[in-house]
Amino acid sequence: LLHANPKKGISQKALEFVKICELLIPHKDIFKKHVVGLILCYIQSLNKGMNPTTKSRLMPSIYALLDMCSSFETRQINAMIDVPSKIVFAPVFQSYQKFYQYHGQA
Asked: Are 10 and 18 in contact (CB under 8 A)?
């Protein structure tokens, strides 16, 4: 994906990654154990400093990945990150809970 076309910008690749993540949702029981690693890589990138445009383009994919996580994977992520990472990731997770997470019918 990242090396398929070197002329494509990171923003375009982020959009392609969103599509891939959305395709994984129906197969979340198979892939959710791998999702933790992807989310941890995202958190690490946030800590290092991520371009705001790239971050906004990746948000739908991060929401899709978080949607695949059960409470077990969510607790696993929380246990694996340090306090500064929790501070950086908290707004992302809160946004996911507020705007994306399925809560059932009203």
From this structure: no
Between the two ends of the chain, the Cα-to-Cα distance in Å is: 39
Q: Are 64 and 21 in contact (CB under 8 A)?
A: yes
- Give the model confidence (pLDDT) of 53-92 as tens digits: 888 899 999 999 999 999 999 999 999 999 999 999 999 9
Question: Is residue 94 a contact partner of residue 61, using CB atoms and an 8 Å limit?
Answer: no
User: What's the one-letter identity of residue 96?
Assistant: Y
* Token reading at 13: 């690749």
What are 3's two structure tokens? 């090396």
Let me know: does 73 contact 32? Beta carbons within 8 Å. Answer: yes
Contact between 88 and 42 under an 8 Å Cβ cutoff? The reply is: no
Helix (H) or strand (E) segment spanning residue 97: helix 83-99
Cα of 83 vs its chain's centroid, Å: 19
Name the percent of the chain lying above pLDDT 70: 88
